[in-house]
Amino acid sequence: MRIPLALIFLLIAIPCYASNHFYDPSTNKLIEDVSGRKTLDQIKKEFNLSDGTEMIALSKGYGIKVKNKKIETYNLAEEKEAKEQEKKASKDAAIQRISTKLNLSEQDINDLAEALE
Q1: 32-57 as b/e: b if 16+ CB within 10 A
Q2: How many CB atoms lie within 10 A of CB 70?
Q3: Span 3-55, pLDDT tens digits
Q4: Helices in the chain by DSSP H: which ranges?
Q5: 8 A C-beta contact, residue 21 and residue 30
Q6: How many CB atoms lie within 10 A of CB 9?
Q7: pTM score, two decimals?
Q8: Sign of the alpha-carbon dihedral angle for 98, 101, 102, 108
Q9: Which residues pair with residue 23 across a beta bridge?
Q10: Cβ contacts of residue 60 below 8 Å, gap of 6+?
């Protein structure tokens, strides 16, 4: 009986997940409150952070980055898609360079790729 209750709890909790992040620009620390219950004052005391510390609440599907001591939020799905497109473009460019160097036709490249899978 314990396993189904735990599974039900996870199914309910995961879609509602939101997290709080705290960023201290003076130390460049980014802290995630995984419990989602701590206040800004509690985090400041626990990690000995400065008064300039900010709290950032993120909803499901978003991430956070710190660039040049500035906070940026981004959509995780869009970021994943952009990385996949970049990886595919890089792979296609590498295939093109190799086929040019080895003087291979497109059919030769396809046969080689099929043999390597």
Answers
A1: ebeeeebeeeebbeeeebeeebeeee
A2: 9
A3: 554 444 444 444 445 678 999 988 888 998 888 788 999 999 999 888 888 99
A4: 2-13, 40-47, 76-102, 106-116
A5: yes
A6: 10
A7: 0.57
A8: positive
A9: 30, 54
A10: 15, 16, 17, 18
